[in-house]
Amino acid sequence: MATAVLSNDHFYTNTDEKSLEIFSLIWLDASVNVKDTRDTEVKLRSIINHIKKFQDIKLCQHYIEQTSQKDRLVIIVSGRLGLEIVPYIHQLRQVISIYVYCMDKKNNEQWALKFAKVKSVVVDLDELVSQITTDHKIQKKIEEPLSINIFTTNIDAGKSTTGVNEQFVCSQILVDCLLRLKSNEIDKNELMNCCQNEYVGNYTELNNIREFEKDYSPDKVLWWYTKETFFYKTLNAALRTQNIHMIFLFRAFIYDIYYQLQKSQSKHPLQVYRSQLMSSDELDSLKNNIGLFISVNSFFSTSDERRTALFLLGDITTPIDSERVLFEIDADPEIVTTKPFANISKYSDFPDESEVLFMIGSIFRLTNVYRNDDQIWIIRMTLCNDDEHDLQQVLMYMKQQIENEETNLRTLGNVLWEMGKFDLAEKYFNRLLQKLPSNDPLVSSLYEDLVELASQRGDYDMSMKWRQKLLTFKKENPLATNVSTNKTNNSIGQSILVDHININAEWKQHGITVAGGNVQGNQLNQLDLPCGIYVDDDHQTIYVADYANDRIVEWKYGAKNGQVVAGGNGKGNRSNQLYHPTDVIVDKKNDSIIICDRGNRRVVRWSRQNGKNGKTIISDIDCRGLAMDNNGDLYVSDTKKNEVRRWKQGERKGTIVAGGNGQGNHLNQLNWPTYIFVDGDHSVYVSDYRNHRVMKWMKGAKEGIVAAGGNGRGNALTQLCHPQGVTVNHWGNIYVADSFNNRIMRWSQGSCEGSIVVGKYEKAEQSSQLNRPSGLSFDVEGNLYIVDCYNNRVKKLDMGEIPPKSYHYLTKYLPAGIKDLSAETEDLSDGSENLSDESVHLPLETEYLPDKTDYLPVETKYRSVRTNPKDFIEFEESHCNNGSIPTESLTNLIRLFEIDDEMYN
């Protein structure tokens, strides 16, 4: 061996340092020549990044012994030091292979033969690198620890299953929580910084990181996952070792994998295989729990080729206290509800491997464990879903604990608290505190959590400090509502109470188009008179009721095209068709969407798991808007009966919760109710369309309260004109799409007038203007989503700028020559839709025409005009040029007559 000695400064002395990868390489040699080994280290780091060098045998042994059994260590030792240390470390589970690098191969082979984990004795560094490279190709596939939890019902005398089952359930809830928890650039940047720090000096991986930051997109996630780079290594290590914070930082990419698996979900039953080296203790645990459930805490990679899996087992020497294992798994896509699986070969960096990947948290029933004639243990499993009898009750209860509230860092903290990870729970509570405005209502709940958490840990001084902060906050913010007692079910329905939208919130006026906006049409990048919207923060998705295209379209955040998830098979009443849908919500408890199929007078449920057909859950109803409360009860508005009903699961008739006293404008009546919102107290807010007001009906009330508008039709700040989408925040502020005024209004609780959030009185296509806004929603960050119906787009407005002041109101006109219109038309203001084929149901607005002689004022009424629709031309002041009518305006008008009445009422 060379005699030059490396300075101790270059050797590892900190035994507390942790790697982001599972595999580490330990090099013990008393006399390592820097020049000889520098190039070798570069080559080795391209295989195993984490390399630690030792000169001191005791320090090296201590480091190895304090590592986790879930770590995987490859050891390089010199001949003399190897003879001393190998007898003490070779039996450790985490030590998977040992290589002896020496000058005297023959003598060192004699003692090395006694230890099965010694793979080779070499005298050449290139040979050493080659041997480690070859062995690691197999080791990385079968040596990675398999992190599993067992759900057991076996109760031995004196033993409890509570701890075991709680770990199983909490791991499931943690996955669900992280999938719902929206990511942000701060967290992604933190992840990239962690990776860059991990791979300092590893130029191959640093280049991979730069490429990832530059070129990554969600549709490439499976390619990155299967590619031998930092992404796969660090993500897998985080999952298998349950490094919660790294999993938290990876959550956006975990969701991308989940979404791709869901899109590519296998359509037919499969039998797949996985080879594994497993400790005797792990194998015994499985043998003792046949018939029970196991969940896998990582992505579970398998092959649909048995021969491929067996090949990996046939070329290894079984280490001490380990067994060769082959998993045989039956997977039926029909029973999949929440955890998809798919053959990812066409997306993989290794397309010939025929890899079938299962989602994190997949649950299997263990059906048999036996040893075959080749001395390989066969583990037979069947893929299960959350509805298996033994699991359903406990999983459903736990999931409801997080589904009954908006998913945020507080939710994650509470899950970790339940898991006994107090430090992490405190970390995420504080992380959220730093992000919130100082007067946010959620601050109160977080202080309460921190008080109780510190007390539970026995840190009573800290508990008292948090309690003092809580009292100070309540004194300074007496109007702030405690979030823990005033929540709606974001994960079940669309009633989102956005925590941090306070009284003074403002939005930028120039929004961005996040769906449609490519003129009217039926392509996947187009919409045609969109109506209702649901924002699913958990999956970073919006759902749009694409009215005139008879479909529901799903748009991922940032996507250029949507994806049809319901309907889209032409107008009709078959189970795979829709007819003019007007609203949509997501029922996350049942992983489905619920659709207001207005043209078919029914409400339908459509599975989000590749559902091809809908199921009618309410029929014979003139439905218009939908909502769901935190109990999972469904609310539907009925424009014919002028009422809103609540349906509990299993009910056939429902219960009237608003209106139901005929058409009218009294406090116990409604006139054409459209969109609805249900708050945490089960008060129902209704857009009372033809009464130009928003009504609030408290739970059990016999009449409503005017919460916005109610001062007749108009454009003053005290008025609304055909309100549609409505939502309410924690402060009781009402946000309403003031449709015919082409603006979004905010009405503070108890206020006599509203303020303009966005929009002008004229309708236009510019990004700052609206044209008949309908659906309305917020995301978890308080960004505003508006369905800009006549512009065939969905706009997103970020919070930021001061709301606009009033703008001049431009009017709509009818051409001169239509005189004494009221005498020539039939009044249908009762809302009747029974029109003859030759008649047109046309909504007309109150008009005021200053300094115009060619046009006449038009009285406000809803009429069926028995004449040729081409005679009625709708256009703005800008179109009036010596009585000429632009061809485009004429074409658009004619098309308007082909659309259902309620779209324009």
Automatic annotation (TrEMBL):
GO terms of biological process kind: proteasome-mediated ubiquitin-dependent protein catabolic process; protein polyubiquitination
InterPro entries: 6-blade_b-propeller_TolB-like (IPR011042), NHL_repeat (IPR001258), TPR-like_helical_dom_sf (IPR011990), TPR_rpt (IPR019734), TRIM-NHL_E3_ligases (IPR050952)
GO MF annotation: an example: ubiquitin protein ligase activity
Gene3D superfamilies: 2.40.10.500, Tetratricopeptide repeat domain, TolB, C-terminal domain, Toxin ADP-ribosyltransferase, Chain A, domain 1
Residue ranges of TPR repeats: 406-439
CDD domains: NHL
Keyword Repeat listed: yes
Superkingdom per UniProt: Eukaryota
Keyword vocabulary terms for this entry: Repeat, TPR repeat
Pfam families attached to this UniProt entry: NHL
NHL repeats: 769-800
PANTHER family noted in UniProt: E3 UBIQUITIN-PROTEIN LIGASE NHLRC1-RELATED (PTHR24104), PROTEIN LIN-41 (PTHR24104:SF25)
Name assigned to this protein: Uncharacterized protein
Organism of derivation: Adineta steineri
